[in-house]
Design a protein that fits this description.
With 35 residues, the protein is mainly β. It is 0% helix and 71% strand. It contains no helices and three strands. Strands 1-2-3 form a three-stranded antiparallel beta sheet, with no helix packed on it. A hairpin with a 2-residue loop joins strand 1 and strand 2. The chain is rod-shaped and about 30 Å long.
């Protein structure tokens, strides 16, 4: 299951991604949109 939330903010984008697979991974990124 992959759930991604993308919201525009003053300085860029706020990305909250929750990925559930064999390995549980949680990513919460706020700020400029970049890898």
């Amino acid at each position: 299951m992959v759930e991604v939330l993308l919201q525009p903010v003053d300085n860029g984008y706020a990305i909250t991604a929750t990925i559930r697979d064999e390995k549980r991974v949680y990513v919460n990124y706020k700020g400029e949109m970049r890898k």
